Amino acid sequence: MFQKSYLFPFLNVEENIGFGLKMQNMSPEIIRNEVGRMLDIIGLPGIEKRKVGQLSGGEGQRVALARALVTNPKLLMLDEPLSNLDTEVRLNLQTAIRTIQRELGITTIFVTHDLSEAMAMSDRMAILLDGNITAYDKPNVLFHHPPSLSSAKFVGVDLFLEGEASGGWLDAAIGRVKIEDEKKVGRSVYAIRPEHIRIQKEEKENSLKGVIQSCLYRGEVLEYQLKIVDVTMRARLPMPAPIFEHGEQVYVQLPAEHLFEVQG
Questions:
Q1: Fewest C-beta atoms under 10 Å: which of 41, 72, 155, 221?
Q2: Among 3.30.1360.120, 3.40.50.300, 3.60.21.10, 3.30.70.1060, what is the CATH number of 13-123?
Q3: How far separated are the first and last CA of the chain, in Å rounded?
Q4: pTM (predicted TM-score)
Q5: Are 3 and 38 in contact (CB under 8 A)?
Q6: What is the pLDDT of residues 123-163, one digit of tens each?
Protein backbone atom coordinates (compact mmCIF):
# COMPACT_ATOMS: atom_id res chain seq x y z
CA MET A 1 0.00 0.00 0.00
CA PHE A 2 1.42 3.35 -1.10
CA GLN A 3 1.00 7.13 -0.69
CA LYS A 4 -1.69 7.01 -3.37
CA SER A 5 -4.36 4.31 -3.45
CA TYR A 6 -3.51 3.23 -7.03
CA LEU A 7 -6.94 1.64 -7.41
CA PHE A 8 -7.84 0.37 -10.86
CA PRO A 9 -9.98 3.18 -12.33
CA PHE A 10 -11.82 0.83 -14.69
CA LEU A 11 -13.01 -1.43 -11.83
CA ASN A 12 -15.55 -0.70 -9.10
CA VAL A 13 -14.83 -1.11 -5.38
CA GLU A 14 -15.82 -4.78 -5.27
CA GLU A 15 -13.69 -5.61 -8.30
CA ASN A 16 -10.71 -3.69 -6.92
CA ILE A 17 -10.77 -5.42 -3.53
CA GLY A 18 -11.40 -8.84 -5.05
CA PHE A 19 -8.74 -8.54 -7.75
CA GLY A 20 -6.12 -10.54 -5.85
CA LEU A 21 -8.59 -13.31 -5.08
CA LYS A 22 -9.65 -13.43 -8.73
CA MET A 23 -5.99 -13.89 -9.71
CA GLN A 24 -5.94 -16.85 -7.30
CA ASN A 25 -8.91 -18.35 -9.16
CA MET A 26 -11.28 -18.09 -6.20
CA SER A 27 -14.97 -18.62 -6.91
CA PRO A 28 -17.23 -15.56 -7.40
CA GLU A 29 -19.11 -16.47 -4.22
CA ILE A 30 -15.94 -16.57 -2.10
CA ILE A 31 -14.76 -13.30 -3.62
CA ARG A 32 -18.11 -11.64 -2.92
CA ASN A 33 -18.14 -12.84 0.70
CA GLU A 34 -14.53 -11.82 1.34
CA VAL A 35 -15.05 -8.39 -0.20
CA GLY A 36 -18.08 -7.86 2.02
CA ARG A 37 -16.08 -8.93 5.07
CA MET A 38 -13.25 -6.54 4.20
CA LEU A 39 -15.64 -3.64 3.71
CA ASP A 40 -17.07 -4.31 7.17
CA ILE A 41 -13.56 -4.38 8.64
CA ILE A 42 -12.55 -1.05 7.06
CA GLY A 43 -15.85 0.57 8.05
CA LEU A 44 -17.31 1.03 4.55
CA PRO A 45 -20.06 -1.59 4.19
CA GLY A 46 -22.37 -1.47 1.18
CA ILE A 47 -20.17 0.40 -1.31
CA GLU A 48 -19.30 -2.62 -3.47
CA LYS A 49 -20.65 -1.11 -6.69
CA ARG A 50 -19.30 2.40 -6.19
CA LYS A 51 -16.90 3.70 -8.81
CA VAL A 52 -13.36 4.62 -7.83
CA GLY A 53 -13.89 8.21 -8.97
CA GLN A 54 -16.69 8.59 -6.42
CA LEU A 55 -14.42 7.83 -3.45
CA SER A 56 -12.85 10.47 -1.21
CA GLY A 57 -9.13 10.32 -0.48
CA GLY A 58 -9.70 8.60 2.86
CA GLU A 59 -12.18 6.12 1.37
CA GLY A 60 -9.75 5.32 -1.44
CA GLN A 61 -7.00 4.49 1.05
CA ARG A 62 -9.38 2.30 3.06
CA VAL A 63 -10.30 0.40 -0.11
CA ALA A 64 -6.60 0.05 -0.97
CA LEU A 65 -6.02 -1.33 2.52
CA ALA A 66 -8.87 -3.83 2.06
CA ARG A 67 -7.37 -4.91 -1.28
CA ALA A 68 -4.02 -5.51 0.45
CA LEU A 69 -5.61 -7.46 3.31
CA VAL A 70 -8.11 -9.64 1.44
CA THR A 71 -5.50 -12.21 0.36
CA ASN A 72 -4.49 -12.71 4.02
CA PRO A 73 -0.81 -11.75 3.63
CA LYS A 74 1.78 -12.77 6.21
CA LEU A 75 3.43 -9.35 5.96
CA LEU A 76 1.79 -5.99 5.21
CA MET A 77 3.95 -3.14 3.86
CA LEU A 78 2.51 0.38 4.14
CA ASP A 79 4.66 3.04 2.44
CA GLU A 80 3.54 6.47 3.71
CA PRO A 81 -0.13 5.61 3.09
CA LEU A 82 -1.51 8.66 4.91
CA SER A 83 0.87 11.43 3.86
CA ASN A 84 -1.46 12.96 1.25
CA LEU A 85 -4.56 13.12 3.47
CA ASP A 86 -6.05 15.97 5.50
CA THR A 87 -5.27 15.98 9.23
CA GLU A 88 -8.67 14.77 10.47
CA VAL A 89 -8.88 11.97 7.88
CA ARG A 90 -5.28 11.03 8.63
CA LEU A 91 -5.87 10.73 12.38
CA ASN A 92 -9.03 8.67 11.84
CA LEU A 93 -7.21 6.31 9.48
CA GLN A 94 -4.30 5.94 11.91
CA THR A 95 -6.76 4.62 14.48
CA ALA A 96 -8.49 2.40 11.92
CA ILE A 97 -5.27 0.85 10.61
CA ARG A 98 -3.94 0.25 14.13
CA THR A 99 -7.20 -1.41 15.18
CA ILE A 100 -7.39 -3.60 12.06
CA GLN A 101 -3.75 -4.63 12.36
CA ARG A 102 -4.23 -5.73 15.96
CA GLU A 103 -7.47 -7.57 15.23
CA LEU A 104 -6.04 -9.48 12.26
CA GLY A 105 -2.61 -10.00 13.83
CA ILE A 106 -0.68 -9.26 10.64
CA THR A 107 2.96 -8.22 10.96
CA THR A 108 3.10 -4.73 9.47
CA ILE A 109 5.89 -2.41 8.36
CA PHE A 110 4.68 1.20 8.32
CA VAL A 111 6.98 3.72 6.62
CA THR A 112 6.59 7.39 7.53
CA HIS A 113 8.65 10.58 7.85
CA ASP A 114 6.25 11.89 10.51
CA LEU A 115 7.64 11.27 14.01
CA SER A 116 4.29 11.57 15.80
CA GLU A 117 2.74 9.13 13.33
CA ALA A 118 5.59 6.66 13.80
CA MET A 119 5.17 6.86 17.57
CA ALA A 120 1.41 6.35 17.36
CA MET A 121 1.45 3.46 14.89
CA SER A 122 4.26 1.25 16.13
CA ASP A 123 4.93 -1.41 18.73
CA ARG A 124 8.58 -1.23 17.73
CA MET A 125 10.18 1.64 15.88
CA ALA A 126 13.27 1.66 13.66
CA ILE A 127 15.09 4.84 12.68
CA LEU A 128 16.57 4.60 9.19
CA LEU A 129 19.23 7.18 8.29
CA ASP A 130 21.41 7.09 5.17
CA GLY A 131 20.27 3.54 4.45
CA ASN A 132 21.21 2.23 7.90
CA ILE A 133 19.06 1.36 10.90
CA THR A 134 20.57 3.55 13.63
CA ALA A 135 18.12 2.62 16.40
CA TYR A 136 15.43 0.01 17.04
CA ASP A 137 13.32 -0.20 20.20
CA LYS A 138 9.93 0.58 21.69
CA PRO A 139 8.72 4.07 20.66
CA ASN A 140 8.74 5.48 24.20
CA VAL A 141 12.32 4.27 24.73
CA LEU A 142 13.59 5.87 21.52
CA PHE A 143 11.68 9.07 22.28
CA HIS A 144 13.06 9.57 25.79
CA HIS A 145 16.42 7.78 25.54
CA PRO A 146 17.68 7.61 21.94
CA PRO A 147 21.00 5.75 21.88
CA SER A 148 22.95 7.89 19.41
CA LEU A 149 23.43 11.50 18.38
CA SER A 150 21.81 10.96 14.98
CA SER A 151 18.76 9.15 16.36
CA ALA A 152 18.37 11.79 19.10
CA LYS A 153 18.25 14.54 16.47
CA PHE A 154 15.64 12.58 14.52
CA VAL A 155 13.29 12.34 17.51
CA GLY A 156 13.46 16.08 18.17
CA VAL A 157 16.38 16.57 20.58
CA ASP A 158 18.49 19.61 19.75
CA LEU A 159 20.48 20.35 22.91
CA PHE A 160 23.66 18.33 23.27
CA LEU A 161 26.21 19.02 25.99
CA GLU A 162 29.72 17.78 25.36
CA GLY A 163 32.29 17.98 28.12
CA GLU A 164 34.30 16.25 30.83
CA ALA A 165 32.31 14.17 33.31
CA SER A 166 33.51 13.58 36.86
CA GLY A 167 31.90 13.05 40.25
CA GLY A 168 28.34 13.55 39.02
CA TRP A 169 29.07 16.75 37.10
CA LEU A 170 29.58 17.60 33.44
CA ASP A 171 31.76 20.57 32.52
CA ALA A 172 30.31 21.69 29.17
CA ALA A 173 30.88 24.77 27.03
CA ILE A 174 27.70 26.45 28.30
CA GLY A 175 28.44 25.75 31.95
CA ARG A 176 28.63 23.11 34.67
CA VAL A 177 25.60 20.85 35.05
CA LYS A 178 24.82 18.02 37.42
CA ILE A 179 24.27 14.50 36.02
CA GLU A 180 22.90 11.47 37.82
CA ASP A 181 25.78 9.10 37.02
CA GLU A 182 28.35 9.95 39.68
CA LYS A 183 30.69 7.23 38.40
CA LYS A 184 30.88 8.64 34.89
CA VAL A 185 34.39 9.88 34.06
CA GLY A 186 35.84 11.32 30.86
CA ARG A 187 34.68 12.97 27.67
CA SER A 188 30.93 12.53 27.28
CA VAL A 189 27.90 13.86 25.41
CA TYR A 190 24.61 14.37 27.25
CA ALA A 191 21.26 15.47 25.85
CA ILE A 192 17.84 16.52 27.08
CA ARG A 193 14.44 16.69 25.40
CA PRO A 194 12.93 20.18 24.90
CA GLU A 195 9.87 19.06 26.90
CA HIS A 196 12.07 18.56 29.97
CA ILE A 197 13.81 21.94 29.89
CA ARG A 198 12.35 24.45 32.35
CA ILE A 199 12.51 28.23 32.23
CA GLN A 200 12.56 30.23 35.46
CA LYS A 201 12.89 33.87 36.44
CA GLU A 202 14.99 32.90 39.45
CA GLU A 203 18.04 30.69 39.68
CA LYS A 204 17.38 27.10 40.77
CA GLU A 205 19.34 23.86 40.92
CA ASN A 206 21.10 22.95 37.67
CA SER A 207 20.13 26.17 35.91
CA LEU A 208 22.11 28.42 33.58
CA LYS A 209 21.56 31.99 32.42
CA GLY A 210 19.94 32.30 29.01
CA VAL A 211 18.12 34.75 26.74
CA ILE A 212 14.69 34.32 25.12
CA GLN A 213 14.93 34.59 21.33
CA SER A 214 11.42 33.67 20.19
CA CYS A 215 8.16 32.06 21.27
CA LEU A 216 5.74 29.94 19.22
CA TYR A 217 2.26 28.94 20.39
CA ARG A 218 1.61 25.30 19.43
CA GLY A 219 -1.73 24.66 21.10
CA GLU A 220 -0.87 22.42 24.03
CA VAL A 221 2.63 23.87 24.48
CA LEU A 222 4.57 27.11 24.22
CA GLU A 223 7.81 26.55 22.35
CA TYR A 224 10.61 28.94 23.28
CA GLN A 225 13.88 29.32 21.46
CA LEU A 226 16.66 30.30 23.83
CA LYS A 227 20.35 31.00 23.73
CA ILE A 228 22.93 30.16 26.39
CA VAL A 229 26.34 31.63 25.52
CA ASP A 230 26.46 30.70 21.80
CA VAL A 231 24.25 27.59 21.98
CA THR A 232 20.66 27.77 20.72
CA MET A 233 18.01 25.37 22.03
CA ARG A 234 14.27 24.83 22.27
CA ALA A 235 12.12 24.46 25.38
CA ARG A 236 8.53 23.21 25.11
CA LEU A 237 6.46 24.26 28.14
CA PRO A 238 3.00 22.73 28.70
CA MET A 239 0.09 25.14 28.84
CA PRO A 240 -0.64 27.13 30.88
CA ALA A 241 2.95 28.31 30.68
CA PRO A 242 4.71 31.46 31.91
CA ILE A 243 5.11 34.18 29.30
CA PHE A 244 8.59 35.53 28.63
CA GLU A 245 9.43 38.38 26.28
CA HIS A 246 11.92 38.45 23.42
CA GLY A 247 15.34 39.37 24.77
CA GLU A 248 14.39 38.65 28.38
CA GLN A 249 17.10 37.10 30.54
CA VAL A 250 15.99 33.89 32.25
CA TYR A 251 17.38 30.84 34.01
CA VAL A 252 17.27 27.62 32.00
CA GLN A 253 16.93 24.58 34.25
CA LEU A 254 18.22 21.21 33.04
CA PRO A 255 16.96 18.61 35.56
CA ALA A 256 19.63 15.97 36.13
CA GLU A 257 17.07 13.14 36.01
CA HIS A 258 16.24 14.06 32.41
CA LEU A 259 19.80 14.35 31.11
CA PHE A 260 20.85 11.19 29.25
CA GLU A 261 24.08 10.15 27.59
CA VAL A 262 24.25 9.62 23.83
CA GLN A 263 26.94 8.06 21.69
CA GLY A 264 28.44 10.05 18.85
A1: 72
A2: 3.40.50.300
A3: 36
A4: 0.79
A5: no
A6: 999 999 889 999 999 999 999 999 899 999 999 999 999 99
